[in-house]
Specification:
The protein has 281 residues and is α/β, with parallel strands linked by helices. It is built from nine helices and ten strands.
């Protein structure tokens, strides 16, 4: 079992020591969050991020706006966070309410304070990345996936990886990160128009399901011993359901469950981006 909760806890302990060292130099990392609307899942997720910050000693600032907020209200809040001296990194919580141009607003974020790693400049740096360590923030979920696999010593060098889903927060940037020199995986990015997804998945050493379709990935699709990460999640009558059929556990060599797998890693990577930005600046 790829236990994201346990690894995230380990990472937060490491970050706690980094924060102590930074504070001794007079530097206090600070996370900002901007939440628009009343989506229950977003409120729960943002609250968890602030609890993570409290655990590791990171200062945090929370701005909540009602669903009735105007575009100008949101732009003003982004400007305040760009200017805030006590915020070294921040996020605009997605999804935004209907009617907002998400890309337009994300582009207003100072790239140096982009804690989610989703600003076009930072995504462009990921496209251009060579074998050297990146100084710009990485998208949190892809970074969390690679970190989880690495800490469990799942071989990625030369491995065939099937990524199901081409969303901007997981699928597309994950493909870029896995292809980066130094990681060197061979990535097959699958989506709704892909032909014969089961055949493509059957070849893979690592499978990442990130499409938001309940129990989409079947056990018979998986090569025995492969590593499988269940990332997508859907709310159904029975509760929250991942993309991977539960019967797959009998076939996979490694399994990251949902919940308890990649989710905690995403939050840990967010805090890491904030601490890294503070150290860099």
């Amino acid at each position: 079992m790829l236990d994201g909760l346990a690894i995230a806890k380990q990472i937060k302990l490491e970050l706690t020591q980094e924060v102590i060292a930074l504070k001794q130099r007079g530097i206090t990392p600070g996370l900002g969050t901007l939440l628009v609307g009343d989506d229950p899942g977003s409120h729960t997720y943002v609250g968890g991020k602030h609890r993570d910050c409290q655990e590791v000693g990171v200062h945090s600032v929370r701005i909540d706006l009602p669903a009735s907020a105007s575009v100008q209200d949101v732009k003003a809040a982004i400007k305040d966070l760009n200017d805030a001296q006590d915020v070294t990194g921040y996020i605009v919580q997605l999804p935004l309410p209907f009617g907002f141009d998400t890309n337009e607003l994300l582009e207003l974020i100072d790239p140096a304070k982009d804690a989610d790693g989703l600003h076009p400049i930072n995504l462009g740096r990921l496209v251009l990345a060579g074998s050297e360590e990146m100084n710009s923030p990485l998208p949190c979920t892809p970074a969390g996936i690679v970190e989880l696999l690495t800490r469990y010593q799942v071989e990625l060098n030369g491995a065939e990886v099937a990524v199901i889903g081409r969303g901007i927060t997981v699928g597309r940037p994950l493909g870029l990160l896995l292809n980066k020199k130094g990681i060197d995986s061979t990535v097959n990015l699958l989506h709704s128009r892909s032909r014969d997804i089961p055949h493509a998945v059957k070849r893979a050493d690592v499978v990442v399901a990130a499409l938001g379709s309940p129990h989409f990935v079947k056990a018979e699709w998986i090569k025995p011993g492969a590593a499988v990460l269940d990332v997508g999640i859907t709310r159904v009558e029975q509760g929250l359901v991942g993309d991977v059929d539960p019967g797959l556990a009998a076939v996979a060599g490694y399994l990251s469950p949902n919940p308890g797998g990649v989710g905690p890693m995403t939050r840990a990577m967010l805090v890491r981006n904030v601490v890294k930005a503070a150290s860099k600046n």
